[in-house]
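// run 5 | inverse folding | seed 20
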């Protein structure tokens, strides 16, 4: 195991909420990049850091070249995120750097946002908010802004990991029937009655709403394209709380314009923060700026979990969320 001192010594390249900074200060020796040199590019600062543990987020991507440049003192990269597509794991492995992520602690917060997007898309939240905030609302009518219910509908989850299961638990509160598609079927106690479809095509034809939850990878890039959208029933809803790369924007936008899809709820976008500008003009898109895990409870839980897993590793055990 690479040498890391007993008291965790961390260089935090990422910006963190004050509450989390205070938690981390209590537990370890930590330097926050935004406090020492906010104007200096992160990669430059990282090249001079002396701490063995580097903490980053998706905003501080480390590709092969960046990892090669890290000083010899760096033994651990800990990403304060569940996703890790911003890290070149092979490059870290080649340098003998251990890598940790946070797969567990975000699930509840992201599942809540999944429900929020599903409800917002179904109940025409964008148009409703626009109407009331524009001060143009002239009063209740039976024809105004009628959406669709999610009660007793069929929900399809593409990528039924921890977040998917947390989402399914919430959707059951709306009497939804849960379907899922994964590479492998889950154990019965994890399935909780959800219907497994080995082939996503079989699931798509049965559901009223589809939630994307698979990780971003070469395999899932562009997964939701025109052909697959065509497998969905007319009037279906699409929610994306995974990564923007899973969606072909041209195809999703065409289906939202044509009415094949009733609406979409989107928290993630290809090329964030420069999302496809056509989304702004679609009233049937309810969208959020990647806030899936943005709760103070989750942010604090993430820091606690990170420290916990690093200590576990230092004690010679293998934490489950070590990537490399
Ligand atoms: C995560 O943790 O992966 C969030 O989506 C932020 O990147």
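// decoded
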């Amino acid at each position: 195991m690479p040498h890391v001192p007993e008291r965790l010594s961390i260089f935090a390249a990422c910006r963190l909420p004050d509450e989390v900074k205070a938690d981390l200060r209590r537990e370890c020796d930590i330097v926050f990049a935004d406090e020492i040199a906010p104007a200096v590019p992160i990669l430059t600062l990282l090249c001079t850091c002396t701490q063995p543990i580097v903490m980053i987020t998706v905003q501080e991507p480390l590709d092969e070249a960046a990892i090669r440049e890290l000083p010899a003192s760096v033994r651990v990269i800990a990403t304060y995120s569940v996703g890790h597509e911003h890290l070149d794991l092979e490059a870290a492995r080649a340098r003998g750097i251990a890598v940790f992520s946070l797969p567990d602690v975000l699930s509840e917060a992201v599942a809540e946002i999944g429900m929020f997007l599903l409800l917002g898309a179904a109940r025409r939240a964008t148009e409703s908010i626009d109407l009331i905030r524009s001060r143009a609302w002239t009063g209740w009518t039976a024809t105004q802004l009628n959406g669709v219910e999610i009660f007793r509908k069929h929900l399809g989850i593409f990528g039924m990991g921890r977040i998917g299961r947390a989402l399914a638990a919430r959707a059951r509160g709306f009497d939804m029937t849960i379907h899922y598609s994964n590479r492998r079927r889950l154990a019965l106690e994890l399935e909780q009655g959800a219907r497994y479809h080995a082939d996503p095509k079989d699931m798509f034809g049965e559901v009223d709403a589809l939630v994307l939850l698979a990780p971003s990878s070469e395999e899932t890039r562009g997964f939701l394209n025109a052909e697959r959208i065509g497998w969905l029933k007319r009037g279906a809803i699409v929610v994306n709380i995974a990564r923007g790369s899973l969606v072909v924007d041209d195809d999703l936008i065409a289906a939202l314009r044509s009415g094949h899809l009733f609406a979409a709820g989107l928290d993630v976008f290809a090329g964030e923060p420069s999302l496809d500008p056509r989304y702004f003009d679609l009233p049937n898109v309810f969208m959020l700026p990647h806030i899936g895990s943005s709760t103070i409870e989750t942010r604090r839980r993430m820091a606690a979990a990170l420290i916990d897993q690093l200590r576990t590793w230092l004690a010679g055990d293998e934490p489950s969320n070590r990537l490399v």
